[in-house]
Write a structure and sequence with these properties.
By secondary structure, the protein is an alpha+beta fold. It has 17 helices and 15 strands. It folds into 3 domains: 180 residues, Transcription factor LuxR-like, autoinducer-binding domain (Beta-Lactamase), CATH 3.30.450.80; 119 residues, PAS domain (Beta-Lactamase, 2-Layer Sandwich), CATH 3.30.450; 68 residues, Winged helix-like DNA-binding domain superfamily/Winged helix DNA-binding domain (Arc Repressor Mutant, subunit A, Orthogonal Bundle). The chain has a 5-stranded antiparallel sheet. It has a 4-stranded antiparallel sheet with strand order 6-5-8-7. A two-stranded antiparallel sheet has the order 1-4. The protein starts with a strand and ends in a 6-residue tail after the last helix. The N terminus and C terminus are likely disordered.
């Protein structure tokens, strides 16, 4: 399948995924193709990849290797786990596979992060669902931005596939894959590949946040888990709890959140109990079998406090030794959580049915003021800002920029975008 990428006004030489070379004349449209591996090869690659992802949950130093395989499986030039803070306008790259040019990576931090047209769209994205450029703004608008002209295009980058791992009211944590011209723009196959692995990345990242470990040796698994504030339960192939850390034993003693029923971990609500049983039932079959089951199983204590459980298989990868040592097929991590509220950006967007581009323009106009200044700040043409303003006026029912400022102030302070 061929995918149109971009019109190059000054010509270029592009390399296809099959190593063939195409010289592009000025104004021509570039297409990219992929070499398809066999179903068996992709199944093997997926199984190995999922194993590496879960190993990284207990040993964060393995994320670099895992992300390199993520990039190879999905198709791209670089992959990273990162977070964005909408208030601070900051980017924190937690792990990456080193595929992005260090010079341009630093330029992003120093200058182009402020011009990134995708931040607002990422804040609005659904957790776990793959998105790309076209889900946030039309390609023709993207090509007009300074971000594309000065940062993405010189690197040959044509798209960005990503998925939100976790959200708060002001920030998002994501996994992302840069797509070079030779990879092509994100298509349905790319999204299908991401849907196969994003649930596992989410589970591994969430467990990593709970444990906050530098690394974990199999021989010291129980001792390491005992020091965690989260409740941790090792479960065998019959779903029986064979070890619980101090926090876990305290939960079982109080019976506020969890209890033992014939030696098996049980939740207070029928729905949560069923979800635990389902994920335990497949954990012994390997990493891939867990899939989307029980990434974050919600639990409610007797007093109404909210908790969540994450289940990590222990039957594959470097985790296998730990599991075998304790006759365990899975480790369950349980901790208290705050109920997530929508960010002001999400509330405003849903209230007035705003697109990411319109929302981005709204907040920029509120912060900066005039059309010319807003266009310079966002790195787009003044005509683009005027178009978005007309749409904003129509959707919000106001007719002046001053009224837009009042509207946003009624939803949020400080501004979040």
């Amino acid at each position: 399948m061929h995918h149109p990428l971009e019109n190059f006004d000054d010509g270029a030489t592009m390399v296809y995924a099959d190593d063939s070379v195409l010289s592009v004349a000025p104004g021509d449209c570039v297409f990219a193709t992929d070499r398809r591996s066999t179903a068996a090869e992709r199944a093997d690659a997926l199984s190995a990849l999922i194993g590496d992802i879960y190993d990284a949950a207990l040993d964060p130093s393995l994320w670099v290797r895992a992300l390199h395989k993520v990039r190879a499986f999905i198709g791209g030039s670089s992959a990273a786990l990162f977070s964005k803070d909408a208030i601070r306008k900051s980017l924190n790259v937690h792990y990456d596979d080193g595929g992005l040019d260090p010079h341009y990576k630093q330029l992003y931090f120093d200058k182009y992060g402020q011009l990134d047209p995708f931040t607002t769209g990422h804040m609005l994205a659904e957790v776990g669902e793959p998105i790309s450029t076209i889900d946030i703004l039309p390609f023709e608008d993207f090509y007009r931005t300074r971000f594309h002209r000065e940062w993405a295009r010189p690197q040959g980058l044509v798209d960005f596939a990503c998925a939100v791992i976790e959200k708060s009211t002001t920030s998002v944590a994501m996994v992302g894959i840069f797509r070079h011209a030779r990879d092509g723009i994100v298509d349905d196959e790319t999204r299908r590949a991401m849907r196969l692995i994003v649930p596992h990345i989410r589970r591994a990242v969430l467990i990593g946040q709970v444990t906050d470990l530098k690394s974990m040796e199999a021989a010291t698994l129980a001792d390491t888990l005992d020091g965690l504030s989260a409740g941790v339960f090792l479960v065998d192939e019959t779903d029986r709890v064979i070890h619980a850390n101090d926090s876990g034993r305290s939960m079982l003693d109080t019976r506020e959140v969890l209890h033992l029923a014939n030696g098996k971990l049980a939740a207070r609500s029928a729905g949560s109990h069923k979800a635990l049983r389902e994920v335990f039932g497949v954990a012994g079959s390997g990493d891939a079998a867990v899939g989307t089951k029980g990434i974050s199983i919600p639990l409610t204590a007797r007093d109404g406090e909210r908790y969540v459980a994450h289940v990590l298989p222990l039957t594959s990868g470097v985790r296998r030794q730990a599991g075998a040592r304790y006759s365990a097929v899975a480790a369950t991590f349980v901790h208290k959580v705050e109920l997530r509220t929508q960010s002001p950006s999400e509330v405003i967007a849903k209230t007035f049915d705003l697109t990411p581009s319109e929302l981005r323009t709204l907040f920029a106009v509120v912060r900066v003021g005039g059309v010319a200044e807003t266009a310079e700040t966002l790195g787009v043409a003044e005509s683009t800002i005027k178009t978005h303003l007309h749409r904003l006026f129509a959707k919000t029912g106001v007719s002046r920029q001053a009224d837009l400022v009042k509207l946003v102030a009624g939803f949020s302070s400080p501004l979040v975008c």
